[in-house]
């Protein structure tokens, strides 16, 4: 049975949109259609798939303003929506160049056995399920889907039920791109639809929370299908005494509060050398106080509404817990209800420690707890005292000072003298460490390669000696 789901508007708090969630039978039908179309898609030369994705990119370009407006309705923010659509456009180009590299022709090469040469085929998983979250609704919907399509897979995609208003426009873009619609279907639905997709697919890409990721991993394991999991984070920033405090404060402020802090690779903990900690906090707080809420409209200010009510509750609980355990709010800290939406100004806290939920659990909001450390050893220990391992940042006067610290941080990507580079430099291959995920890199050529199984072709010379056990020759 399909079901209707109402969707809340993050600015007004009203349920003003509705989607039809696909049930397991409907998902099965979609997957069956995609499975039938996939072999001829995979059989095309990669150049043809690249051309179809280029047509898709043109369609997204034509509909850029419409997509931005719909994302604005989904998330309540404007500037980030523009960045998001543009990231999709550049992402298609990057993934296409990676695909060309992955499918470069391979010759037969020699092996250790002088009469055997080898080469390989790349065989795409037929149907990939892509399941995405609400924080960057379009970009994270396409970040796995596009490389999978270029690899030769068919894709069934389900964006989050919290932010689905862009789906009709995305479908229109797909319809405008040659025969892309035969191998790429976007469905509406919630967790039950997502779970049904895993039952019907040959591989799953999931971006979301650790809790749901665990359920996805279990379901995929039952079916022996790969699960590529991109999950939560609790990214630390380490600031040494030699860092330029002014530019570091600007970077940390942006990295902690961009998209209202709804970013997996946002900075959620800051460790500063004690000798400069007070100056850093003052600089950071002064800058934070200049950041405005995106009111009265989405094109005003910088910090949009907290997108989901569940997230509002998490932010409130973590702040209350930290204050009850002795944290001091230097600036911000009040969740403001305006016109039905909930907003939080950049919030800087001191007096924090690792007994606080704010320092251990994912926050996903514009909150910046700052803690002093005494030496690099302690900074590394604090940065690594977490179950997460998504990314991190290190700031120092020179790369030579920062890199030894960066090398010791247990995370899949470390930005030096900046933040969030892991999300902005698609060439840099990375894996998610610890509870932040599982599976091949979503960056670089492996972003395409992970959707392909390798079939080895091993060729014995027809006249070559054969090391068989039995000599049955007459
Ligand atoms: P979520 O786990 O609640 O939901 C994500 C998606 O999973 C949604 O589409 C949802 O409908 C679907 N889903 C729910 N139950 C399912 C099930 N049993 N089987 C299959 N699908 C199911 O996450 P969210 O709240 O939408 O997103 C926020 C989380 O995503 C944060 O933890 C954030 O850190 C993480 N995230 C990670 C990255 C990354 O690249 N590592 C990027 C963005 C967000």
Automatic annotation (TrEMBL):
<dbReference type="Pfam" id="PF00171">
    <property type="entry name" value="Aldedh"/>
</dbReference>
<dbReference type="InterPro" id="IPR015590">
    <property type="entry name" value="Aldehyde_DH_dom"/>
</dbReference>
<dbReference type="InterPro" id="IPR016163">
    <property type="entry name" value="Ald_DH_C"/>
</dbReference>
<protein>
    <submittedName>
        <fullName>Aldehyde dehydrogenase family protein</fullName>
    </submittedName>
</protein>
<dbReference type="InterPro" id="IPR029510">
    <property type="entry name" value="Ald_DH_CS_GLU"/>
</dbReference>
<dbReference type="InterPro" id="IPR016162">
    <property type="entry name" value="Ald_DH_N"/>
</dbReference>
<keyword id="KW-0560">Oxidoreductase</keyword>
<feature type="domain" description="Aldehyde dehydrogenase">
    <location>
        <begin position="3"/>
        <end position="454"/>
    </location>
</feature>
<feature type="active site">
    <location>
        <position position="230"/>
    </location>
</feature>
<dbReference type="InterPro" id="IPR016161">
    <property type="entry name" value="Ald_DH/histidinol_DH"/>
</dbReference>
<comment type="similarity">
    <text>Belongs to the aldehyde dehydrogenase family.</text>
</comment>
